[in-house]
Design a protein that fits this description.
Layout lengths: L5 H8 L19 H13 L12 H13 L7
Helix pairs in contact: 1-3, 2-3
Length: about 80
């Protein structure tokens, strides 16, 4: 699989089609407003802080792809 592009990941997180065809219909990627806040904070801080409840795996999937595009380690708390 080719290295994902950051622009494609942003489009995927908004539910739009990507140029690199990196999405998978069986895996959730579209983020809600609360999940988007977590994702943006994770991009700034360098790690994803997962709350105890109220989160879907979509934000984890998107952050993992973002880390691949950045070439950094995938870290969650």
């Amino acid at each position: 699989m080719p290295k994902p592009d950051k622009n494609d990941i942003e489009r995927l997180s908004r539910g739009e089609s990507t140029r690199g065809k990196i999405g998978n219909r069986g895996v959730g990627h579209r983020l809600t407003q609360k999940e988007r806040i977590l994702f943006e904070a994770a991009k700034r801080q360098g790690f994803l802080k997962i709350p105890v409840k109220g989160i879907r795996k979509n934000v984890i999937n998107i952050y993992q792809l973002w880390c691949q595009a950045e070439g950094r380690s995938f870290i969650t708390r």
